[in-house]
Amino acid sequence: MCLMLVRYSSAVTQLDVTNFGAVGDGMTDDTHAFLKAWKAVCSSTRQFPTLTVSEGKTFYVQPLHFQGPCKSRKIHVKMNGAFLAPKKKDWKICDDVWKTFSSINGLTVNGNGKFIGQGASWWGSAGDDDSQSVRFDNCKNLQLSGVTSINSAMGHFSIIGCDRANISGLYMKAPKWSPNTDGIDLSKAFGVVIHNCTMATGDDCISVGGGIKNLTITRIRCGPGHGISIGSLGKYGRYETVENVLVRGCIFTDVQNGARIKTWQGGSGHVTGIKYDNIILRDAQRPIIIDQSYCPDRHCKLTRGTNLKINNVSFTNFRGMTATLRAITLNCSSYRGGCTRVALKNVIIRKGIISAEGSPEGDDDVERCDKVYAYCKNAHGSATATIPKVPCLT
C-alpha cells in the first residue's frame, strides 16, 4: 500500500518527526509518524514551517508521497538523520518511487542526512519494477542541498517540472556496475542550476531529458559513471526538445562516457545551444560523443533515421586522458542535414590506459595504429586546436 500524505490545519513552525511517534532505530516502521508530521507541516500557516528529520537516527519507511500544495509559501525539510528504504522483498508496491515530493512550491530540503536505498536487493533482478529513490515533481523554486543518496535501486534523484530549482552539494554513491543508477534525471523544467555535487554511480551522473531549457551545470565531480548526458531523447518515436544547456568546470574520472548527446532512431524534435566547457578527463572511455543511433541493449532495428535535429553544440577547453582509442565520436543522422554548427576548440585528449572494452567496432575507414582518433559521420562545423584531428570538421 502506498501512502499519500494528507494535510490538516496547524499553526506550528518547527516539528521534529520524533514528536509524532517516530523511533528512528532502523527497524521500526516509522511511515505513519511521517504521515502525521507532514500533515502538520503542510497545513501550517506560519511563514516557513520546518519538518526535522532527527540527527543520529535512521528512519525505516515504506514509499511516501509528500503531497502539496501546502498553505505556507515556503516549506523546509531539515534532513539531519537518515531514511532507510525497505528491501525489495519487503516493498509494499503501489508506486515505483520510494519518496515523492510533489506540487510543493518553495520547498527546501537540506542538511547532512542520507537516503539509503538498499539497491543491492534490486540489482540482481533489474527490471521495469525497479524503484527510484527520490522524486521531486512540479516543485517550483526547489532548493535541494547537502544530502547524500547511497545505493539507490535505480535513479538517485529525479527532478520533473521543477522550474528554477537550485541543486547543490549533493553526494551520490552506488557501485560502478549497478544498473540504471543515474545520479540526477531532469525533465520538463526551465532555469535549473546544479553545482558542486559529487556523483559516483553506475549510470549517467546527470541525464538531461526532454523539455529542459536554460540549464546550468557547474563544478560536478563525476565518476565512476556514464558522464553528463543530453538524452536519451526520442525513444518510441517521441517528440522531445532540449535547449540552452551549459556544462562547465566538471571532472570526469573512470567514466564510460564523458560529454554525451544520445538520441534514438525514429524520434523527432531538436537539441540546440549545448555547451560543454572546461572539462578535465581522467581515463574517460568515450570523452566526447554524439550518438544518433543510440541503442543500449543492441537489439534495435537500426533501419530508421531520426528527425531529431542537433544544432549549435560546442566542446571547448577539454584536457586529459582517454581510456579508448576513439576519443571523439560524432555519429549523426543523415536526416535534416546531419548535426550542424558543431564546434570543437582547444580540445586536447591523449591516450591513457586503454580499457578492456577498447574502441567501438565498425571503423573500416580508420587505420588502427594504436593512436587516439576521432570518428565522425554527417557532422558539420569546425575544429580548432584539437587533438585528435576531427576529419569531417574544418
UniProtKB/TrEMBL annotation:
<feature type="active site">
    <location>
        <position position="226"/>
    </location>
</feature>
<dbReference type="InterPro" id="IPR006626">
    <property type="entry name" value="PbH1"/>
</dbReference>
<keyword id="KW-0326">Glycosidase</keyword>
<dbReference type="InterPro" id="IPR011050">
    <property type="entry name" value="Pectin_lyase_fold/virulence"/>
</dbReference>
<dbReference type="Pfam" id="PF00295">
    <property type="entry name" value="Glyco_hydro_28"/>
</dbReference>
<protein>
    <recommendedName>
        <fullName>Polygalacturonase</fullName>
    </recommendedName>
</protein>
<dbReference type="GO" id="GO:0004650">
    <property type="term" value="F:polygalacturonase activity"/>
</dbReference>
<keyword id="KW-0964">Secreted</keyword>
<dbReference type="GO" id="GO:0005975">
    <property type="term" value="P:carbohydrate metabolic process"/>
</dbReference>
<keyword id="KW-0134">Cell wall</keyword>
<dbReference type="InterPro" id="IPR000743">
    <property type="entry name" value="Glyco_hydro_28"/>
</dbReference>
<keyword id="KW-0961">Cell wall biogenesis/degradation</keyword>
<dbReference type="GO" id="GO:0071555">
    <property type="term" value="P:cell wall organization"/>
</dbReference>
<keyword id="KW-0378">Hydrolase</keyword>
<dbReference type="InterPro" id="IPR012334">
    <property type="entry name" value="Pectin_lyas_fold"/>
</dbReference>
<comment type="similarity">
    <text>Belongs to the glycosyl hydrolase 28 family.</text>
</comment>
